[in-house]
Amino acid sequence: MEGLKMLQMNWKKLCAHALAGVLAGTMVLAVAPVTSVLAQTRALPDFTDLVEQVGPSVVNIRTLEKVNADVGAGMPGDKEMQEFFRRFGIPMPNIPRQAPRRNQPQDDEQPRGVGSGFILTTDGMIMTNAHVVDGADEVLVTLTDKREFKAKIIGADKRSDVAVVKIEASGLPAVKVGDVSRLKVGEWVMAIGSPFGLENTVTAGIVSAKQRDTGEYLPFIQTDVAINPGNSGGPLINMRGEVVGINSQIYSRSGGSMGISFSIPVDEAVRVSEQLRANGRVTRGRIGVQIGPVSKEVAESIGLGKPQGALVSGVEAGAPADKAGVELGDIIIKFDGKPVEKSSDLPRMVGSTKPGTKSTLTVFRRGSTKDLSVMVVEIEPEKTAKKTSEKDEKPKTAQAGQAIGLSVSELTKEQKSSLSLQGGVRVDSAVDNAARAGLREGDVIMQLGNNLVSDVKTFEAALAKTDKSKPMSVLVRRAEMAMLLVIRPAK
Q1: Annotated catalytic residue: which of 232, 252, 273, 343?
Q2: I need a labelling partner for 197 at 20 to 30 A (CA). Which of 157, 227, 229, 462 fits?
Q3: Does the model's pTM come out above 0.85?
């Protein structure tokens, strides 16, 4: 109460002083606070000039697929649409297949998918997503002035989801490529595309995050711009009218935009497009290691200081890393002198290195650092797992592993031969603790704890010796890779 009285008295004195100043003609009104408030108030952005500037550079892309009339036609472009619906989280509609029409040609072109793209060069090079044109028999590009062209696919890279197509035209309005390093979280951005086939649709929002690790080779730009099926391949544009990304993916539970969309940084996309234009394909480097993140607890326990680098959990036999002397448990903290801040940095660094280059790995091993010279080689196409012959005898299975979420069986002779293994057990299923550790169907367990595993019998014996209330190390073989995983007890 005492404080309130003092405040009232001071307020009365201030008012009296101000009134006297006004009557005397000497009072200067205090406008600084008002000016300060006005300076901090910013008007909402106007995108009309950007649309006029960039809009003509954005194209609509339709793809066609040849279908066999005798087989009958179901949903147009079944394979593409299934991929399209899967990518955007939309339940696949159940549409009955139609009987073929009489006198219909043996092969007929049917609509297959729709997407977006943008003009990269004035002579008709267009950038889009690889999944937009993947598997298409014909690609049609429509400009904003309604001209339509048949496009040639110059190249597509599924790993980065970038594709380049070419139309025969000249004097086209090409986009300006922006500097992604200048992009800031909270900055306004705009997208133009063809969601659900609605051409030249403009949406806007802000950058929600950068360097979002949702892909193996690319750190995505996350925005809250409304992106829907059909926006794929369209540009993400900053307020300077520059393209900073390619709209590629959304996170959705409903099938529509939920305010979480991802764009490929344009600098990464341009590097991919240059290789596609020059060679029709992209070559990436590899050194043959399986890696994982370094936790704060691990970093502190081994004296690394802070969580950084990539923990080597597997080394491919005979690969460059193996020849260079990389060991399980090493932490790769630098590649060619550049810091590896997190594990996802390493694949990008190695992948962008030209195959045949001799590079230097700096590893942290047992309390000290060591430099290793490694030759980067070209990454190989993903191998398809060899199917087991139906004539093979049914392998013996083990039930003991169910306590830790594992179901395993004996390796067949064919499997041992194809994997060049003398022994081990095959993982038939992994759930609960085992799944959380990273084990999955098809893995081959070679060691449990410090015990070698040659068959189901030795697996059960090793499991019986192991204290299941403590973390359990498992050495597994996955395709050509060996890795060390840890099964932790249930909490």
Answers
A1: 232
A2: 157
A3: no
